[in-house]
């Protein structure tokens, strides 16, 4: 261990979502003994967490082999006793429809090449060259599937993210981590003092006015990170995608048991229904929605859940189109539990695991999940533990990048290779409120 934080030093983690909980667990495994997690919701899984959800895709093939290798490690860990109850290796049916743009087709081709290039993944890849192949791979998809082609990767699956958060919360508690939830856990600010060496954090202040001292503050606040670490500026954009569900019967859920994650890059994706709630989740993807503060030009996740409790019309149409292609009996059903789900986006989709500059190594930020971080849940915290052991980020991709590549822009909707469409502003997609007067 270098000069950094000592194993018995008080460490505060802000945020009890995916990155915060994984970090708490792994720090206890590495011998850190004085860890407190502060979470603004009064229970875990927190409703504000992007991972408070029925399921997230755990797919190993990335355009960047760096993340492919990490996901292979994560999947091995998903199969260990703590995580296995939440991992379902249903396979990932990854296609484009006949209407797809060239960008979608090219992206699919890069994902496929990544899967086929990897010796561990390749044996699990089944080509789907036409609609018949798709039906062979999944007989339940009884819609027209017009023009669908791509591949099925049986190496991949999904994780029940909300339940996985709850399990790691219990495991971290059992390992001695203290949790402060609700009004005692909502963090107002990181508190700084001036020292001869420069500015340094002395702890945090919670919304109830209390000061909590610590040697190190680790901020893992998801889409709300900008409020606590304004130094990020436009390096991170709070962004959201739509999520909605179809309520099925027991019989319908049973009939769809075991279907792969079904993803047309141009239409979005859906999952095997959840057997407990009979909900089938759909996500239309796209360029996402941002919530830019006109004064600062910085996008923040809204403070209340109500502001995100809808999906825009365009996304609803897109979700119905996906159903019409795949499971047409469901295409006109009500879409329930609609919401926008907020994450922290970087321009290169890389995570950030590093000290905040100008804090004398007293504040670490875990951010930039870029909408693909949950699959790493079983191992994410080991990277933080490794970082603290070395007191520096040895992996250039996860450093606090000094240049602000899009200082003038900070949106990068359609620029991201694996997404289609531009980012829109939340204020422009809000449902029109009908006056009750
Ligand atoms: C629609 C959608 C689909 C996704 N699909 C996938 C997928 O298929 N596969 C995948 O791997 N990933 C997926 N993701 C990404 C995944 O959900 C995130 O990468 C992951 O949840 C990020 O974890 P986090 O801890 O950074 O943020 P979160 O999980 O959002 O947690 C942040 C936590 O910080 C808390 N917090 C915020 N501010 C404060 C404060 N001031 N005080 C105290 N607590 C605070 C919040 O309440 C929250 O609990 C998806 C994301 C979205 C939005």
TrEMBL record:
<feature type="domain" description="FAD dependent oxidoreductase">
    <location>
        <begin position="11"/>
        <end position="386"/>
    </location>
</feature>
<keyword id="KW-0274">FAD</keyword>
<keyword id="KW-0285">Flavoprotein</keyword>
<dbReference type="GO" id="GO:0008115">
    <property type="term" value="F:sarcosine oxidase activity"/>
</dbReference>
<dbReference type="Pfam" id="PF01266">
    <property type="entry name" value="DAO"/>
</dbReference>
<dbReference type="InterPro" id="IPR045170">
    <property type="entry name" value="MTOX"/>
</dbReference>
<keyword id="KW-0560">Oxidoreductase</keyword>
<dbReference type="InterPro" id="IPR006076">
    <property type="entry name" value="FAD-dep_OxRdtase"/>
</dbReference>
<comment type="similarity">
    <text>Belongs to the MSOX/MTOX family.</text>
</comment>
<dbReference type="GO" id="GO:0051698">
    <property type="term" value="F:saccharopine oxidase activity"/>
</dbReference>
<dbReference type="InterPro" id="IPR036188">
    <property type="entry name" value="FAD/NAD-bd_sf"/>
</dbReference>
<protein>
    <recommendedName>
        <fullName>FAD dependent oxidoreductase domain-containing protein</fullName>
    </recommendedName>
</protein>
<dbReference type="GO" id="GO:0050660">
    <property type="term" value="F:flavin adenine dinucleotide binding"/>
</dbReference>
């Amino acid at each position: 261990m270098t000069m950094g934080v000592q194993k018995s030093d008080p460490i505060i983690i802000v945020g009890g979502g995916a990155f915060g909980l994984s970090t708490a667990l792994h720090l206890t495994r590495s011998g850190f003994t004085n860890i407190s997690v502060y979470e603004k919701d009064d229970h875990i899984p927190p409703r504000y967490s992007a991972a408070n959800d029925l399921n997230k895709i755990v797919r190993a093939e990335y355009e960047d082999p760096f993340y492919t290798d990490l996901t292979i490690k994560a999947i091995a860990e998903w199969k260990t006793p703590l995580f296995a109850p939440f991992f379902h290796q249903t396979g990932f049916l990854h296609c484009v429809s006949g209407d797809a743009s060239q960008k979608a087709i090219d992206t699919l081709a890069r994902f496929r090449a990544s899967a086929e290039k990897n010796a561990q993944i390749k044996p699990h890849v089944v080509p789907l060259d036409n609609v018949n192949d798709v039906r062979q791979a999944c007989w339940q998809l009884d819609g027209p599937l017009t023009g669908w082609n791509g591949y099925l990767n049986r190496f991949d699956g999904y994780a029940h993210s909300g339940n996985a958060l709850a399990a790691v919360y219990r495991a971290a508690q059992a390992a001695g981590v203290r949790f402060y939830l609700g009004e005692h856990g909502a963090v107002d600010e990181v508190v700084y003092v001036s020292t001869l060496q420069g500015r340094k954090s002395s702890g945090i202040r919670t919304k109830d006015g209390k000061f909590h001292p610590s040697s190190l503050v680790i901020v893992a606040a998801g889409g709300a990170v900008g409020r606590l670490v304004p130094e990020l500026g436009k390096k991170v954009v709070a962004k959201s995608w739509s999520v909605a569900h179809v309520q099925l019967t027991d019989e319908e859920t049973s009939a769809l048991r075991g279907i792969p994650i079904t993803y047309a890059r141009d239409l979005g994706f859906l999952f095997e229904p959840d057997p407990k709630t009979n909900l089938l989740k759909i996500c239309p993807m796209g360029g996402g929605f941002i919530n830019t503060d006109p004064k600062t030009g910085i996008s923040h996740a809204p403070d209340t859940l109500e502001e995100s409790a809808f999906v825009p019309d365009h996304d609803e149409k897109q979700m119905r189109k996906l159903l019409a292609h795949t499971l047409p009996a469901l295409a006109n059903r009500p879409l329930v539990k609609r919401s926008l789900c907020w994450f922290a986006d970087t321009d290169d989709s890389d995570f950030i695991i590093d000290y905040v500059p100008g804090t004398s190594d007293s504040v670490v930020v875990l951010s930039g999940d870029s909408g693909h971080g949950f699959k790493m849940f079983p191992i994410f915290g080991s990277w933080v533990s490794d970082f603290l052991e070395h007191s520096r980020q040895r992996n250039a991709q996860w450093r606090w990048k000094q240049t602000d590549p899009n200082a003038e822009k900070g949106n990068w909707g359609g620029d991201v290779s694996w997404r289609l469409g531009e980012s829109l502003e939340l204020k422009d997609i809000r449902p029109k409120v009908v006056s009750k007067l």
